[in-house]
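Ticket #4471: structure output looks truncated?

Reporter: J.K.
Steps to reproduce: submitted the chain below (336 residues) through the standard prediction queue, then opened the result file.
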Amino acid sequence: MEVKIANPIYDVVFKYMMDDNAAAKLLVSSITGEDVIELDARPQEHAVEIPDPVDAQKTLTVYRLDFAAKIKTDDGFRTVLIELQKASLASDIMRFRGYLGRQIANPDNSIKGEDNRLEPVRIYAIYFLGDDLEICDTPVLSVSPVVVDMATQEVVKKRSKFIEMLNHKCWIIQISCLKQRRRNELEKLLHVFDQSNRTSDNHILNVREEDFPEKYRPLIRRLQMAAGDSEVKHKMEQEDIHLRYVQNVERAAHHKGLSEGLEKGEAIGLEKGEAIGLEKGEAIGLEKGEAIGLEKEKIEAVIRGRKKGHSIEIIAEFTDLATEQIIKILKENELT
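Returned output as attached by the reporter:
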C-alpha cells in the first residue's frame, strides 16, 4: 500500500521524527549496528549567521541533534555520545568540524570509570549529507579507527581506551546516492530519505509500507503523522525560503568575487597588455607588450642600418627579418 510521508530531508521533519524515542532508537541502532537500549535526546536549535551584504542581521536556523546512548555489549553496557547532523550544502562541513571539536573539548561529556575517576565519553558521529562525496556506489559509509602494527602491517585487535577516546566512529549517509538501493535492512530503512520518491510537492514522499521490514513501521507512521501536521508543513515552507536565501547569498558572493577579480585583472592587464582578467590579462599583456617592443626594436635597427649605408642583405642578417619586411619598413620611413 502506498503511503505519503513527510520528506525527512527537511530539518523540521527530521527533528519531528527524532523527537519520537522509538523512531530515534530504530534509526540510530540500524545505522550503528549496535544494540541501543536507552537513548536520551538532547536536541539543540542552533542559529548560524549567514553573511548578507545587504542585511548583516539575517540568520538561518539549523538543527543538530545530540543523544546520550546506553549500548548493550557482550561484557555489559557502555555510554556513548551520539552527534547527529545533516546538511544539504557542502559549506556546512565547517559546521560539522566546529561542533565536533566543541563536543570533544567539553568537560561535561565525561562519566565515572571503574576506578571512580572521570573519563571522556566515547563519541559517535552520524552525518546525513545532501551532497555526495564522489563515491556514490556506496551510499552508506562506516568509518572506524583501525590500529595497525607498523612493522607487520597487521591489524591489532586488542582494544585500548586511550585510542578509543582519542578517535571516534562515524557513519555517513549520502542521501543523493540512495537511489533505490535495497541491499540490506539499513538501506531499506533509509529508503525514507530517497528523493526519487518525491511527489509534485517536494515536502511529500510516496513510499510503499510493505517495502519496509515490520520493525521499521513505527518510523514510517511517525513520518505519516508529520505529513499531516500543519505546523510541520508551515516550517518546511520557511525552510524553502531560507534555503533560497542562502543560495542567493552564495550567488551574490560568487558574482562579487568574480567582479572584483575581473576589475583587478583589467587594471593589471591594461597596464601590461590586453585586459582579460587578472591571470589571462597579465599573460596576454606581457606577451603582446614583448612582441610590440621587439618589433619596434627591429624597426629602429633597420633604420639605423640603412642610415649607415648598409645594404638590405646586411640588415637582414643582423635583424633576422625577411627582405620584404625590410623593404616595407624602409618605404614607410622614406629610406628606399
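Triage note (M.O.): checked the attachment and the full C-alpha cell line is present. The chain has ten helices and ten strands.
Status: closed, working as intended.
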